[in-house]
Amino acid sequence: MSLSTNDLTELMELWAELNLTTAEHYNLSHVETLLCSGAVSHATFLQVLSILYIFMFLVGLAANSLVVWMNLRSVRNHYETHLYILNLAVADLCVVATLPVWVTSLLQGGRWPFGEAVCKLTHLVFSVNLFSSIFFLTCMSVDRYLSITLLADTPESHRKKAVRRLICILVWLLALVASTPDTYFLRAVKSSHHDGSVCRPVYPPDHPREWMVGIQLSFIVLGFAIPFPVIAVFYLLLAAAIPPNSDQERRDGRRIILTYIVVFLVCWLPFHAVLLLDTLSLLNLLPFSCQLENFLDVALHLTQCFSLVHCCINPVLYNFLNRNYRYDLMKAFIFKYSTRTGLARLIDGSHASETEYSGVATENSVMM
Question: How far apart are CA 71 and CA 325, in angstroms?
Answer without folding.
Answer: 9
